[in-house]
Design goal:
By secondary structure, the protein is mainly alpha-helical. The radius of gyration is 23 Å and the shape is globular. Strands 1-2-3 form a three-stranded antiparallel β-sheet. Helix 3 runs antiparallel to helix 7, helix 9 runs antiparallel to helix 10 and helix 10 runs antiparallel to helix 12. The relative contact order is 0.09. It folds into two domains: 136 residues, no CATH class; 148 residues, no CATH class.
C-alpha cells in the first residue's frame, strides 16, 4: 500500500501534463470571468462568500483526484461535445451581453465537460458533492434576487421595528424605510437575509460533507434549519443598526459598524448551525440505541 499512493500520484501528474492544452483553454475562459466576479460580485457584501466557495471547492476536487484517476471510465464523446457546446454558448452570450450569471455558468459547464471527458460519469456521480458545491460560485441573476429579497426585506423590517417598538424605541416603518428619531434608514438588499442565507447554506453544506459525508437527506434537513437562522440573524442586525443610529447617530451606524455587524453575526450563525448539527447527531444516536 505504501508504494501505491506514489504510483497513483505519478499517473495523475502525467495525465495533468498530457492535458495541458485543455487546462490552458479552460484558464483562458475562467480567468477573465474570475476577474469580473471579483470586481462586480465578490466585492459586494452579497457575493463575499464566492472566493471561499471557489477555494474550498477546488481543494475538495484536488483532494479526490487520485480516486478520480483510479475509477476513471470511458466517456461518450457526443455527450462531451454537447455539454461543451452548450457551455460555450452560455459563456459567449453572457460575455457579449454582460450577463455574469450565464458567463459563470458557461465556465462551470466547461469544467464539467472536461471532467466528464477525462474521468467519465460514474466517478462524477459518486463524488457529486464538490461539483454541486462549486455551483454556489455562480452568482444568481439580479431579477431573481429582486424577487426574493423584496419579501425578505419586508419581513425583517417589520420584525425588527415591531420588537423595538415594543421595547419603547421611537421607531416606525413604511415599506422597507425605517424612521427612528430624526433619522431615516433604508433596508438594502444586503440586509434582506439573502447574503448570509446563501453563504451560510454553502458553508453548512461543506461542514456536513466533511463531518457527516455526502448525505443529501441530512443536508436537506439541516438546510431547513439554516433558513430561519439566517432570517433571525438579519433581524438582529437591523435592530442593532437601528439602536446604533438612535443612540450614536447616523454616521456611526452607516460607517464601519454597518458592514461589521453582518460579519460579527455570521460567526454566531455558524456556531449555532454547528451546534444544531451535533444535537441532531446526538438525538439520532440515542434513537438508534433505543431501538
Amino acid at each position: 500500500m505504501a508504494g501505491q499512493a506514489p504510483a497513483v500520484s505519478e499517473r495523475l501528474w502525467l495525465r495533468l501534463r498530457a492535458d495541458w492544452p485543455l487546462w490552458l483553454g479552460f484558464l483562458i475562459l475562467a480567468v477573465p470571468t474570475i476577474v469580473r466576479l471579483a470586481n462586480q460580485t465578490w466585492s459586494r457584501e452579497f457575493g463575499a462568500y464566492g472566493p471561499l466557495v471557489l477555494a474550498t471547492g477546488g481543494w475538495l476536487l484536488w483532494r479526490q483526484t487520485p480516486e478520480f484517476q483510479r475509477l476513471a471510465t470511458p466517456a461518450n464523446p457526443w455527450i462531451t461535445g454537447g455539454v461543451l457546446l452548450t457551455a460555450l454558448a452560455s459563456y459567449i452570450f453572457g460575455r457579449a451581453y454582460d450577463f455574469l450569471t450565464l458567463e459563470t455558468a458557461g465556465v462551470y459547464g466547461a469544467g464539467l465537460a472536461m471532467l466528464y471527458s477525462r474521468f467519465g460519469l460514474a466517478v462524477m456521480l459518486k463524488h457529486w458533492f464538490p461539483l454541486f458545491y462549486l455551483a454556489f460560485a455562480i452568482p444568481p441573476p439580479d431579477a431573481l434576487l429582486a424577487d426574493v429579497t423584496g419579501p425578505l426585506k419586508q419581513l425583517v423590517s417589520w420584525a425588527a421595528t415591531s420588537w423595538l417598538d415594543g421595547w419603547g424605541v421611537p421607531v416606525a416603518r413604511e415599506g422597507v424605510t425605517i424612521f427612528v428619531a430624526q433619522y431615516q434608514l433604508l433596508v438594502e438588499d444586503a440586509c434582506s437575509s439573502m447574503n448570509s442565507l446563501v453563504g451560510l447554506i454553502a458553508v453548512s453544506l461543506l461542514y456536513i460533507y466533511l463531518m457527516r459525508g455526502s448525505s443529501w437527506r441530512y443536508s436537506i434537513v439541516l438546510v431547513c434549519f439554516v433558513i430561519p437562522i439566517a432570517i433571525v440573524a438579519n433581524i438582529l442586525r437591523i435592530m442593532i443598526l437601528i439602536l446604533l443610529t438612535y443612540y450614536f447617530g447616523d454616521e456611526v451606524a452607516q460607517g464601519f459598524l454597518h458592514f461589521t455587524a453582518g460579519m460579527f453575526l455570521f460567526a454566531p450563525e455558524l456556531a449555532f448551525v454547528f451546534g444544531l448539527d451535533n444535537l441532531i447527531a446526538f438525538l439520532a444516536s440515542r434513537m438508534r440505541r433505543a431501538r
